[in-house]
Amino acid sequence: MAVSLSSVRLLSALTRSGSLCRSLHVTAVCCKNRAARPRVGKGDYPLTYEEALPPHYIGHRKGWLSQHTSNLKGEEGAAERTVEDVFIRRFVSGTFHNCLANEIVIKRRGNVIIVCAILIQKLTPQKFYFLIGYTEAMLSHLYKCPFKLVVQTLDKKAVYKYL
Amino acid sequence: MAAHTSRAFLSLGRINVPGLGLHKSVSRVTYSTGLSTDSSKATTGSPQKGGKKVLSKKYKREPGDPRTELMPVDQDWTAVYPVATPFIPDAIPLPVRMGCPVKGGAPPEKKGNLELIKIPNFLHLTPAAIKKHCEALKPFCTEWPSALDTDAKCDEHFPIKVETKSYVSAGPSIRNPAARIVHLSVKLSSLNLNDQARKKMLKLVGDRYCKDTDILTITADRCPLKQQNYDYAMYLLTVLYHESWKIEAWEAEKTVADMEEYSWEGSLSQENILDVLVRMKEAGEGEGEEVREQLLGRREVQEYKDSVTRLKNEGENESTMLQYKEAVKKVLKL
To answer: Are residues A34 and A54 in contact, defined by beta-carbon separation less than 8 angstroms?
Structure first.
């Protein structure tokens, strides 16, 4: 009791002083879906097809970035494949930093994992070759399965629309 | 682009080896000033912090024609796409477009189109490619034995059929627990069973026998391996066969309730009809066993016996009820 009284007095003292005041702010709940939806801008921000379409178009206007049999009925291993996918995306986007034109597509065929990437010609071809070999070797060693990296290069990003 | 067309060759040809060392033919790219158009800018550029020399503008190699321009019309497509590979726009001479078009526009073109890469393609499965596959596989195949040209012959020589499933999935593991299940099916007519043995076999197997097709199916899945389940199923079949031929002492105590089929001789129906006929004095005068046997020999009584047996065994339907009605009318002279 005594402790609470003293803390209340302290709090009121602080409020009067105007500093270190922690109070609770409440706003109205935003019941809108904002995931992966680009906001409309001035009209000069380029968007690729993948970025421009929101996620409810997956299956209708967009395909799947990662395909494997574990998501079928009665098959096992979906969680392990998903975790592998997340790691592979981070690894590849970090290795080819700023050079990726679009998301990575991951395909699995039995044991083999095929990563399809579209790169922008920011580095010399030799550097790209090295990075491709490095990625394949590192990921093969980490996951103990053969990895293949299939790469396309573009001059600049393929723009779908401007927002 | 030359950079990634050679890349395409790279991805098609090798398995697991990193890319270095395969492209010694590519000329070394250096930061030379001779070919750059902005060389003036480079030489007049002021030095960076601390007196470091400014590097001239990087020599950027001009991308060459995409491979589609250089492809002859009658090329061997199986050489371009020998295995299943993702879509490579510069190796496929088709003006494919994919995607939802922008308002008033066309679907996005194939260059840099991620949708075309996401979907599986069958460019490696043209009829010519499949023909080549078949030709390559032919030396390893043997002919089907000519003596087994009908299904009936196959059943006669190979009465036991074993069915197993194996599963392929994408992932590092080839194991699937559903692959251990073994179904063994055999027609009972191909087994050497007499009447008693067949009835005992049917009682032993119960649900596993299908009356319409006369096939007994044994499903084994209690062992962890397919081989073990197959051995167990064969063992079960052997044991069932031998057990159904054995006659135990207590089998003599089979009652009417255990019988699989209805038999008229010695049943209530026989006694009832004989009593009725005797009371109707059809046989004429006289009592005793010989009267009953004489009655049994009569044609109407035999027909009545057939109709009752059929009714009890097959159940009630139009034809059995009709037959019973006719037989009753004849026997009772209605």
So the answer is: no
